[in-house]
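seq as requested:
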Amino acid sequence: MKIVYCILGTYNAGGMERVLANKANYLARMGHELTVVTTDQKARAPHFELDPLICQVDLAINYTDDAGLGIFRKILSYKRRQRIHRERLEALLMPLKADIVISMFDHDVSFLHDITDGSKKVLEIHFSRFKRLQYDRKGLWKLVNTWRSGHDLALAKKYDRFVVLTHEDLTYWKGLKNSVVIPNANTFSVPRRAALTEKRAIAVGRFDYQKGFDQLIAIWKDIHARCPDWKLDIYGQGPLKADMLAQIHALGLDGQIALHAPVKHIMEAYMHSSLVLMSSRYEGLPMTLLEAQACGLPMVAYACKCGPRDIIKPGKNGYLIAEGDRADFADKACRLMEKGALRQQMGEAAWEMAENFDAERIMRQWLLLFERLVKGDRR
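struct tokens:
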């Protein structure tokens, strides 16, 4: 099959980019013809390695150049970029004659379904139904995001299939008959689980509002008072790094919390940790929990929309914490730090439950979906 993925860029070290690389590489190795179409790559290399057989095309729309504009100038510029985007994407797809074209719910979502190139169109979302409302924006931006959130539902109906990552999120997309749940797969599998003997917790994610690291740093103040010999390593990058460093210093946690740049071989960092912590305000299906679970780490996470509820079974492989309950978050983390036997028990359960997200199992679901679409099967 000829399969096309559309995404803003592959240069980020994010979960969506990692998932795309994993799927595209898998499909290319099977002999399918893969094309990854970006809009804002700007000649940057993919952060996660892509098979050399995968064709990479950048349309040079560069939506991110408008990040600093005010709302009215941004809307005008966006309309112009959308027009150019559609023209260039259509010019690419019409002669390509792909079997499947997938939008990863990026800037092409509003028009890809209308391009009559003969392909089946799939919409794949990596956040929840309420993503736009969780930005916590005010004023005109809040009104814009409220409208866009409603419009998302109308757009999702226009695709041949709409893929969500969690059963939880599926319940929020009311009235859709074209939706299906296919979760992200494990990035890697390990022959043995982590030893869980090092007094080290790990958190992974972009340094931005979504990941809520400001809350995690504040929580660590209480954790440090109760478990002073434990350290926290946070891997990521992003616009809030300076703010995070300032907060760490203000709370007297220098030497207790370390910020690290993203690493391509994150598995090694998980294997030398004993606990993963996730303080996100919203997610889709958090790769950090899947990756940590695959290494046999117990998990403590806010029960945000969406993802943690599909991965963590409270009391079995970790703990789900009510959003914003910092005291309970600190208590559950310390409980795992103080009780080695409990940590080992939950770590073993996590390692076993990682089988639910085995890459072969997940990719069989994708291939079955593609085959049915190509054959015209509406199931």
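The CA atoms of residues 185 and 357 lie 5 Å apart.
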